[in-house]
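Changelog-adjacent note: as of this version, every example in the card shows the full chain rather than a window. The one below runs 583 residues end to end.
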Amino acid sequence: MTTESQSLCTRSMQAPSSHHRRAWCPSFKLREVASMYCTMVAIFFIILVAALQGTAPSENHFPYKVPLDPEGILELSWNISYTEEVICFQLLIKELKYGVIFGMSDRGEFDNADLVVLWSDGKNSYFGDDTVHLVYGFLDEPFPSLEAINTSAIQKGLQRVQLLKPNISKPTLPPDLEDMEITAPDIIIPNQETTYWCYIKELPDHFSRHHIVMYEPIITKGNEALVHHMEVFQCAAEIEKVPHFNGTCDSKMKPEKLNHCRHVLAAWALGAKPFYYPEEAGLPFGGPGSSKYLRLEVHYHNPLELKGVHDSSGLRLYYTSMLRPFDAGIMELGLVYTPVMAIPPKETDFILTGYCTDKCTKLALPQSGIHIFASQLHTHLTGRKVITVLAREGRVTEIVNRDNHYSPHFQEIRKLKKIVTVLPGDVLITSCTYNTEDRKLATVGGFSITEEMCVNYIHYYPQTQLELCKSAVDPGYLQKYFHLINSFNNEDNGNYSNSSVKEQFASVSWNSFSRDVLKSLYDFAPISMHCNKSSAIRFPGEWERQPLPKIKMGLKEVTPQCQTIPGLSPASPALVNIDGKKG
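Full-length structure tokens:
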């Protein structure tokens, strides 16, 4: 097989012209599982085999792109048409041997993945689709047929990316725009698969109040496939002095005060474009009541464990002194960081839910409400799905954000396709689904990466005093659960109440009864509501043993409208002989 350009396409769109390229038009439908809505869309698919140098089309054709493999051999770019419900992919390959595999997978595995395969038997070249994390593989030897390809024996990998970017025009930027770069100071990326690097940056003295109106990534050239996601946090204003630090975030040398740097200013993940605030709002930083200390956190994904790689990646903040009409705010929804919310071991899809109740929104939100324009979902290692919905007058009316294929290793602030307005008296419900199949003990809520969280950081305007609207099960009812389980299992619980909640969960004998009762407890027991100001002080009122919001009806799920491929059974791959002969 040569490295001349090859193209396969559907629908009416055409690939950039090339006199080497020949086109075939079978009709493909692939499940788009990287989107927040898990929508079934008609796919316009292109495979373009070309050198990365010199033959790539203009970025206007494919505005979104992401390197797939750590060495940068494969680069995926794409475009979206919401009106035609079409995604156009382009795959650029530096060196093609005997073929390539590309597809979409639920969690990054090759089993049961939707794959398209370009391969050669040494004489002729073929293309087929086999019956979504993006998955890829390299074929280093010829194969006589599609069935002969053993995906367990080839070089392969996965990449996480959000494909369905919102179709939002860029707002006009102010004339006095300034920028600030917050980057790692020429660090050497550790030769291990996963590293979180922390770096403290200090704002200039007497830095006045500004609005952040945009930010974008700065990626060291050559490290595009290693820098996975980055965040900039502002430290708590009450911490007068934060020690300077430059090292891994799990280092024993990391100062404790860095744990108080949690106010998100910017977040970027692989494949994301520059982030723009709406023209009517900006994120305030600087000035009185604002910390001068910022924490950069960079997640490096180095599966090949490359050594000696220098990096100075980070984020560039664009800000203005011409303050916009509204301050943007960031609010935490979901579950309180507490061990009373726990997931039993060996669970495949255990759900925990946190509430921002009507009582809190009535008290804390202005009469005209707030307007959510972006969202960042967050769990730790066992999180698999996250969703936040809005309920009004007892009925779920819309989805704020959802990711049915969530990965804790891929986190970004995502612009919503449309602004969601939350009025006083509305309820915001955040649910997270967890998988603990590989754990022997219960996973409790908490700050450690081995503990769990369920959070949605919503970005909204106008800013209010409400910074945290979260819940947890009432601790007293949880103790009743432990007492019931011990009695049922005839276990001695004489000193049980003196143990910590984490120790109590670790002592539970997990069987169908203890699991089902815990699920029921979380579904029906009263909650402790945290309706908090930025000072971590609750709004006035009674917030303990609050009843769960009564939701009468949920949203109806939209049935995917994907047509079957004419004349093709689900078990039969579509084959095309690229060299002109029938496959």
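Structural remarks: The longest helix spans residues 475-488.
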